[in-house]
Specification:
The chain is an alpha+beta fold. The protein contains 17 helices and 21 strands. The chain binds adenine.
């Protein structure tokens, strides 16, 4: 991921971001950070970048010209780099034509401002920064931050280049550099590989709407205060329970607003757990802090997965089911209208068809809702599947399946994350998902794992955006060597380490997968869930 900071104080930004975890990630090539001095782009012979505001008023304003030229220089560099790498992997970037007219180039880069290269103006007048926003921005390849000074920036340039106005809180600082650094820090730790433990910050404050529990280190006693005894017990279950309770109490006391949200989620989980296997997808979304609740009345619940945008729907009766579809449609339409006009949206056509255009998939938990959803949203591709859930807490044994030490002995495979160099192999062998970009995205997120025999990729598995284990495939020449079992075991144990309940979804015709799940002790739901998507 690449950060570009437009500033009058490049040294301040670079010094702040060259240390510790972010500095190390930049050294390892996981991030690149450049500070661009806006002053270098002024056409004023005295290097001036500010002037008085029309209409009078206190202070000076940053002028449009140097800000625009600095931004355009960065935009053009991003476009050139994207084109050099591969135009097909640069969907977020407008490419300036080589040797084209200056006017053309200008038009193209202007287009980039209309929602393509994310350009964040850090300002107390923006929406408040959040963990969710950090996650969203971490999905971008490039983000430009514009740091204001003096009394602000000429509105006309902001209109042309800014895609997001973001504040770090309701207080005013002397400039945008510190807020930009705060945001870059929070975004960077969401980038796969930046945190050493590879956990990408999934189990911390603000995940699952709970603050983090208190932590203790040596010595056992300090200033007469002892470490809570349960933490010395070695009993994982008791420790987890203690931590959850402590996190709840802390959240209730320090952030009652957040606690309310958490309590609503807990009520949904309790209702869904009455049919636990059937609802495992929705339960896990809620537990992992990935769900947006659209509707919740008893066991009638509609959620949206914040990561993929997919909707999940479960209803006790048809009437309430319809009522929920109305809410869902309105939600999708509203989301459509909030989009900046982009290439994917037909010109002027966002309002009427916004709901349809914005619904990628709806997952239903009752058969009686299939027809209404087909009719209302045009999602006619129906895939029924059973949920398979690993309900135990103990990890599965790995002896004879794969080498945990990462040293391949030619007999047993080593399991490690796939890199982009494996995308072609995955696309060639795995046909369930036609969308190559989806697989590329999963690889980029380190959510796909391969079984390697020596350097040969023999099979792979992944975690879908919404959290289920899937995409399991063994290359034909390596079948019959328990590699499927090895990969599935690896994923189950990985989920358990993160405190997740491992689950997947299998179609009725996939007998091989069903058999494998059963042999590993997974339980299968009696009723099915129905994935409804648009015809490919
Ligand atoms: N610039 C000055 N104060 C700010 C704030 N609170 N957030 C973002 N940018 C700022």
């Amino acid at each position: 991921m690449n950060f570009h900071i437009l500033t009058l104080f490049p040294d301040m930004v670079m010094q702040g971001l060259s240390q510790s975890i972010i500095g190390r990630a930049a050294e390892r090539g996981l991030l690149s950070i450049e500070a661009v001095n806006i002053r270098d782009y002024t056409k004023d012979k005295h290097k001036k970048v500010d002037d008085y505001p029309y209409g009078g008023g206190a202070g000076m304003l940053m002028q449009a010209q140097p800000v625009y030229d600095a931004w355009k220089a960065v935009g053009d560099r991003i476009a050139d780099r994207a084109q050099a790498i591969s135009p097909q992997y640069a969907p977020n970037v407008c490419v300036t034509p080589q040797g084209g007219q200056a006017q053309d180039a200008r038009k193209q880069t202007d287009q980039a401002a209309l929602g393509r290269i994310r350009t964040v103006y850090v300002t107390p007048q923006g929406e408040t920064f959040s963990q969710q926003k950090a996650k969203e921005l971490a999905r971008e390849e490039d983000v430009i931050f514009l740091c204001g000074h003096y009394e602000g920036i000429d509105e006309r340039v902001l209109e042309e280049i800014v895609t997001d106005y973001i504040s770090i809180g309701d207080y005013v600082l002397t400039g945008g550099e510190l807020p930009a650094m705060v945001m870059i820090d929070a975004i960077s730790r969401m980038v796969p590989g930046v945190l050493n433990n590879g956990e990408s910050g999934e189990t911390e404050s603000f995940e699952g709407d709970l603050l983090e529990y208190p932590q203790y280190s040596r010595p056992e006693e300090w200033h007469g205060k002892s470490v809570p005894e349960v933490l010395l017990s070695g009993n994982r279950r008791m420790i987890d329970a203690w931590r959850r309770k402590a996190a709840e109490e802390r959240t209730k006391e320090r952030r009652p607003d957040l606690y309310q949200k958490y309590a609503r989620g807990q009520a949904c989980i309790a209702a869904l757990e009455k049919q636990k296997l059937l609802h495992m997808d929705m339960i896990e979304l809620l537990k992992r802090g990935q769900a947006r609740i659209l509707f919740a009345e008893g066991a009638n619940i509609c959620l949206q997965d914040k990561e993929s945008g997919i909707y999940f729907h479960t209803a006790e009766d048809e009437q309430t089911g319809h009522q929920m579809l109305k809410v869902l449609g309105e939600d999708a339409a509203a989301e459509g209208r909030s989009y900046v006009q982009t290439a994917e949206m037909p010109e002027g056509g966002v309002a009427d068809d916004a709901a349809q255009a914005n619904i990628g998939a709806i997952v239903l938990h009752q058969e009686f809702m299939i027809e209404p959803v087909r009719e209302q949203f045009g999602l006619t591709n129906t895939m029924p599947c059973s949920q398979v859930v690993y309900t135990k807490r103990e990890k599965l044994p790995i002896t004879g399946l794969y080498r945990a030490d990462g040293r391949s002995d030619g007999e047993l495979p080593v399991i490690r994350p796939l890199g982009m160099e494996h995308l072609d192999t995955v696309a060639l062998h795995y046909h369930e998902i036609a969308d190559r970009t989806y697989v590329a995205g999963r690889i980029a997120k380190r959510a796909m794992y391969g079984a390697f025999l020596g350097e040969e990729l023999a099979g792979f598995v992944g975690m879908h955006t919404e959290g289920s284990i899937g995409m399991l495939h063994i290359l034909p020449e390596y079948r019959g060597r328990k590699l499927g079992k090895a990969l599935e075991t690896y994923m189950i144990n990985r989920c358990l380490e993160r405190g997740y309940t491992p689950y997947g979804q299998v179609t009725a015709e996939n007998g091989t997968s069903k058999k494998l799940q059963e042999s590993l002790g997974l339980c299968c739901s009696k009723s099915q869930v129905y994935w409804l998507e648009r015809e490919p």
